[in-house]
Amino acid sequence: MRFPKLIISFILFILFTVPLYSQVNTIIYDGTIGIGHCHIFNDSVVAIDIIRKSPAWKVGIENSDRIIEINGIKISGCGIKLKEANSLLYDKAGSMVHLKIKRRGIDSLLSFTIKRDHYSDRLATSGYHYLADPDRKLSIEDILTDSINRLFKHNSKTNNLVHFVKEGSNADIIGLQPGDRIINLEEEINNHEVYSIDDEYIPFIVQDSFLLIQRKMDTLTINSDPTKLGTLGGVTSKFRYDLNSGCVWLKFVSSNRITENLTFLLELSSSADSIFLFEISSNGDITERRAGRGLSLDERDYTYKGWVPVRVNFIMNTEQTFYVRLVSAGSLSSPWIAFTPLDAVSEYDRIERMFLSAFLGMMLIIGFYYLILFISNKKRSNLWYSLFILLFGISLFVHEGYMIEISRIGIYSLYNSFQFLIYSAPSLFFILFGIAYLDLKSNLKWWFRIAVSAFIIALALDIILLIEHLISPHHNGSMYYILYGISDFITTYIAYLILIVPAVIMIFRKFKPAFYFLIASIILIISQIYYSMTWGPFNMHNFSSSNLVMLLNNTGHYMGAILQFLIFSIGIAQKMKIDEKEKKHVQERLIDQLMENEKLKDKVNRELEEKVRKRTEKINDQKEEIESQLDEIETQRDELMNQRDMVMAQKQEITDSINYAQRIQHAVLPNHEYMDLVMPEYFVLFKPRDIVSGDFYWIKEIKNFLIIVVADCTGHGVPGAFMSMLGISFLNEQIGRSRLDRPGEILDRIRKKVKQTLAQKGLSEEQKDGMDMAIAIIDKESKELQFAGAFNPLYLIRASSIDDKKELRKYASFKEEGVQLFELKGDRQPIGVYYEETEFSTIVIQLQKDDTIYLFSDGYADQMGGPKGKKYMSRKFKNSLISIQQMNMSEQKQFLDQTLEEWSDGYEQVDDVLVMGIRIK
């Protein structure tokens, strides 16, 4: 039974209430009883904002009172609309209004007779007729013709008229169709005034479980789910569709209930670039006025800060017709018309400019004063403070909108584009000033780092925002606004909080200027908080307050800034006084120190003269003694010369013997002719530390097997050479021409021979002489490699593109530039006696064409050098080997030799160096 009752109520509403209360004209009034706002609740008008000291407040009307009758007209339970109730409440100043009120807790109605007071606040309406002009060809003369004028439609009749339903949307699913009129939302849409059914807010006010639809001549009910947001998503109303044309004419008729002719400022809350108002006089004359950010200042009818209003002259006791042409490069937002008395704006403007001029003048004087101080004393704190004041004044000047008054077209978009720089710059210089003023670098290093970090982060964010905006000025994404929010938070709040904490710490440390810094910062923060809690910059919304209240709201942050600057100035003067006292104290101490130094210098000179005299006497005595000793020294010198000649002769004899030993050692090493025959591609880098070497290499070919040995004997020089001769002798003895054992077995037998020859029994007091050795046996036919090592490893380098077998993966060292190095490590025991001897193991792997193997002693990697005098190390050695794989073997030797020379430049060779490389063919 619910739907028939609703339909009957709707029909009764149409038949009875509309003729009584329908009002399409805009009521212009100058009298009010002091009810700021009303609200429709349960078909009753409820007062929700009683202005203090207004007529309604004085007679005792309270918030939440229900208005039952106005001037004998019953408005409760009649389906009255809010704008119709307002038309009864507001009228001429001085006129009377009779109200009957129902108050909670009181059974009977309360009666009030109130005289309307003078009203100078803002009037607003969204009731008008409109006409879309998509071709933008209509002129005001065309509009005034009957054929065009009758095409105007009232926006309240079309903002809930469905023009288009997107296929697949929620509205399409529940059955809405183009041409439908949504009846049960009509009242709600009209109360919200600026909304039409396709706007983003309407889906959130749909709370009924049904939509009442008028489709042609029928009234239908469409069920909907009130819990599903976006019930009307996908709908475009006729009103919204017409606004998409980008050019729309508005027509509104004013019923002027005013006691005298008044001039108002008309402002349209719209996205229009250009606004043209046409005022039609009683004799048919047309007056055109223009506004809009798409026009230059000279073309605008009225200029005040960043507003774009036009003047409208209302004549008392008449009805006037006005036309407005709105033009936009894109679609238009829903227009919302507001009227503000010109006299109120002019009076406030005069007072505000007087106050703000004084404040800005003071800020400029203070700013330039500290700039002159910086020029005279070169203190950076004065420069940062001067820039902070000047930029703060500029930001306030821009924020209030005065920049637009003195600029030409385009400044508004420029301001919107770079406002983050205008507002963040003062805070950045405030951080620098606070760091210098509190001397955080010397007094609080941790807070100095925090403050510098905050400055760098804020500056970096501003630079990123600037770059992003320059790249894409009209397509700033969500990341832009996230970064903008972070930057704004840091510069608005963090910049002050970061410096307040160290100021408190410095106060406890008896640094008096920090107290002024703290108080000044707190005052500025309080003024900004107060400013943000009020209406903010002056606008058409806050004329219900007095000029004094509005000035406090809009200039409070100026007052706070000036007070902050004055307190800062006291603090800076205090700091300068402290610095001057400190400077004077330092000068006095310097003078005292200089006088003390002069006295000390005289004393020292006297003492030095006495010491010189005594020293001279002592020297004379020593001279005589030295002369007596000179003859004895000459005798000893002759004897030493004879001994030197004898030593030199002995040294030459020993050197000759060592040189002969070198020739013997070279003779037993493999000759190059033999090596060229058995190894087509190879190199041997052999650099003894002394004349003879403890490192040696041994090569022999038996049938199709190539045996390669590289060894490092204990010690170097002559002892090492003896061990190397012994090692070569054992190799010749153990490796015959007909029998070839595995490398590990060869090392076992050589170790046994070394221990027998040197009589090593493993006692703690005996010498641990021996050698490290690496043996590689290569089968030239099958390319099989057998390897065994006593401490010494073998490096195998292979192209990475070659598929490695599993047997090599465990030897992989590292991979770089398409080449992989495998490290075959020997057993960690020498050829000689060892505390934990085990049998030497043999590693067998399969070689491939173009593989390169390297055997070496530890002399190359242990060489000291480089910029820090450290060892070359195995990792650098591996990197060097990998980097030369594109060279032939001769070039590799030259490269390794040159690299070692450059590394050890300025350092002596610490050990014998032996590196042997063989490329497999």
Describe the protein.
By secondary structure, the chain is α+β, with helices and mostly antiparallel strands. Helix content is 47%, strand content 21%. The protein contains 27 helices and 37 strands. The strands form 9 sheets. Strands 1, 11, 12, 18, 20, 21 and 23 form a 7-stranded mixed beta sheet that branches. Strands 3, 4, 5, 6, 7 and 8 form a 6-stranded antiparallel beta sheet that branches. It has a 6-stranded antiparallel beta sheet with strand order 25-37-34-30-32-31, with helices on one face. Helix 19 packs across helix 20 and helix 20 packs across helix 22. The longest helix has 122 residues. The protein is elongated. The N terminus is likely disordered.
- Beta-strand content bin: 15-25%
Gyration radius (Cα, Å) is 51 Å
Q: Which regions are unreliable across 5 or more consecutive residues at pLDDT < 50?
A: 1-23, 535-544
Distance between the termini: 102 Å
| Count of extended strands | 37
List keywords for this structure.
921 residues, alpha+beta, seven-stranded mixed sheet, six-stranded antiparallel sheet, 27 helices, elongated, disordered N terminus
Summarize this structure briefly.
With 921 residues, the protein is of the alpha+beta class.
